[in-house]
Amino acid sequence: MPFTYAHARPALSTDCVVFGLDAEDLKILLIKRALEPFKGRWGLPGGLARVGESLEDTARRELAEETGLRQVFLEQLYTFSSPDRNPQEHVITAAYYALVNLSEHPVRASTDARGVAWFGLTEVPRLAFDHAKILELACERLRGKIRYQPIGFELLPRKFPVRELQRLYEKILGRALDKRNFRKKILNMGILQELAQTETDVAHRAARLYRFSKEKYDRMKKQGFNFEV
Amino acid sequence: MPFTYAHARPALSTDCVVFGLDAEDLKILLIKRALEPFKGRWGLPGGLARVGESLEDTARRELAEETGLRQVFLEQLYTFSSPDRNPQEHVITAAYYALVNLSEHPVRASTDARGVAWFGLTEVPRLAFDHAKILELACERLRGKIRYQPIGFELLPRKFPVRELQRLYEKILGRALDKRNFRKKILNMGILQELAQTETDVAHRAARLYRFSKEKYDRMKKQGFNFEV
DNA sequence: ACAAAAGTGTTTGTTGTACACCCATGC
DNA sequence: GCATGGGTGTACAACAAACACTTTTGT
């Protein structure tokens, strides 16, 4: 069923950089391309935009289809439009980035014919298209944004010890943080809810668990508070 | 000359929020629409993307065609893709924002049949499409970005007195700044080059002129300096 | 009892903020 | 000589950074 227009139109797609934090490292999710161009190479999950669908919906649909991930934090990154970014034709792509916590969002088994796998940021293979550039920008954006917006919590389970939050910031910012100063700062913000629970199944003293409280955060923000790490 | 594709494609356009600073206020540039939809209403300059052209090039081309502006600071803002943002069909638009200094970039006379005019941010008329939303986001972005990136200089002539820079920040941030603290901070950064010249044609004591030095800024940045106002 | 991580305060330096007067110039 | 804006320094408060030991708990 062909579609005809008065003027030539570039194709439009979405691509998504999915960040996840596991016990070792900050990772990203890649899929092995089943089709040309770049067949067999790893790349970002994504696909063609449809008429009548917002780009965010496209990104979510493709993410669900290709990786099984649903209901994740998703934000627009940048739209890449260089005419030669795709060797076959001019494809413009709206790039998004997603933050997921691996414990609550299991990804479709990587034994899938397509191939889906997590890669540490230092172990990323050669990527298809300009996906390396997209990834680069996503990392930059994450580094920048995590410091003044409370989005880091999206990478953690709902209940977490302060240590895990600190580890997250250290991984993303790429440097060690002082434990006492970090605790002082983050706990004094008044955006974490202290829970009665503590960690379980841990060898040695269990840490208290906290929950990010969006309600508290919204209330503080209304009073002129600015999140900053 | 019609173009046919296997799958339906949304149309793709660019729109541009052009900021300029004049003696009174921070203003934006609008054009009066000559065609349906929203014929006769004011809107952002922009137009359809072409195959083989990057979106930034599209934005620049349309800006030159519609307003006469060339070689301005231009940066991508966000891509708006809601299916109902255009009543005729699904048109996705990559929004950009531009910063120009009015003294060095005269705009095509507003007597042009099309109508091109500057509006203070409090005097913006009802806009076509979702352009009010785009404008809103552009203002937010500008407010945020101007504080940690040296882009404000784009709104000033190459040579300017410190007072003008301060006025710019006050207009954009929407609050008064302390003169002594502002001077201290901005001059101590070491990114402004002090010129031998002073203002001319000014009633009363002439202020010293400065120039933003990208070279100095780049050098400082390499040494870990972070611009912040 | 030992290993491992949790939890906790103080000191010091740096940075932001508030604030008022004299000076140079054009009219 | 007066009106207008240019240019300057200091004191105080708030925040960031550095730093080490005791407590709890599981093995």
Describe this entry's structure for a reader.
2 copies of one chain form a homodimer. Chain A is α+β, with helices and mostly antiparallel strands and 229 residues long. The first copy, chain A, is 26% helix and 28% strand. The first copy, chain A, contains 5 helices and 11 strands, in the order βββββαβββαβααββα. In chain A, the strands form 2 sheets. In chain A, strands 2, 3, 4, 5, 6, 7 and 8 form a 7-stranded mixed sheet that branches. In chain A, strands 9-11-10 form a 3-stranded antiparallel sheet. In chain A, strand 2 and strand 3 form a beta hairpin. The longest helix of chain A is centred in the middle third of the chain and has 15 residues. The model of chain A has no long low-confidence stretch (mean pLDDT 95). Chains A and B meet through strand 1 and strand 6 of A and strand 1 and strand 6 of B. Strand 1 of chain A pairs antiparallel with strand 1 of chain B. Chain A binds a DNA duplex (27 and 27 nucleotides) through helix 4.
What is this structure, in a nutshell?
Chain A has helices spanning 55-67, 131-145, 162-173, 179-188, 214-222, and strands at residues 3-5, 11-21, 26-32, 42-43, 46-48, 73-80, 91-101, 116-120, 159-160, 192-198, 208-212.
Largest sheet data of chain A: 7 strands, mixed
Number of strands of chain A: 11
Oligomer: homodimer
Helix run count of chain A: 5
As a percent range, the share of strand residues of chain A is: 25-35%
Detail the poorly predicted runs of chain A. none
| Bulk shape of chain A | elongated
In terms of structural class, how would the helical and strand content of chain A be classed? alpha+beta
SSE string of chain A, helices as H and strands as E:
EEEEEHEEEHEHHEEH
Q: Please estimate the helix content of chain A.
A: 25-40%
Biggest chain contact: A-B, 30 and 31 residues
The whole-number mean of residue pLDDT values of chain A reads 95
Q: Termini separation of chain A (Å)? A: 53 Å
**Rg of chain A, please?**
20 Å
